[in-house]
Amino acid sequence: MLRPVMRHALAVLAGCLSLATSLPCSAQPPPADRVQLRFDAAQAVAVLAIVDARSAGRALAEADWQRLVATEGYRRLKLREAGIGRAGTGT
Predict the structure, then answer these.
(1) Which is higher by pLDDT, 61 or 26?
(2) Distance CA 37, CA 67 (A)
(3) What is the pLDDT of residues 34-60, one digit of tens each?
(4) According to DSSP H, which parts of 1-91 are helical?
(5) Do the beta carbons of residue 2 and residue 10 sit within 8 Å?
(6) How far apart are CA 77 and CA 69, in angstroms?
(7) How far apart are the first and last CA of the chain?
(8) Which residues contact 56 (CB under 8 A, 6 or more apart)?
(9) Among residues 74, 64, 10, 81, which one has the least CA distance to residue 42?
């Protein structure tokens, strides 16, 4: 289990990366031969919130799980699992 300081550091890092990738670097579009990277930390943030709630002894609400399964990362994970014939867990 992650320590609270480590979870906080990961959440801050995820937020910084998310902010950095959402800000335009210049007025010109990037050249077509450049890789464009988009960092989406929503799934990680939702999982960390669940871990925090469990470590604090708080009962998880349906909304906690819904926030996780609504993320693009979770939806992509479910598609990958289905593609390789794994049933996976959750909804």
Answers:
(1) 61
(2) 24
(3) 888 888 999 999 999 999 999 999 999
(4) 4-22, 42-55, 62-69, 72-83
(5) yes
(6) 10
(7) 24
(8) none
(9) 74
* Domain locations along the chain: 1-21+39-91
Q: Which residue has the tokens 């007025």?
A: 27
Cα distances from 43 to residues 28, 33, 65, in angstroms, run 31, 29, 11
Share above pLDDT 90 across residues of the chain, in percent, rounded to a whole number: 47
Residue 46's Cβ-count burial label (10 Å; 0-12, 13-18, 19+) is buried
Record the pTM.
0.59
The tokens for 55 are 């470590």
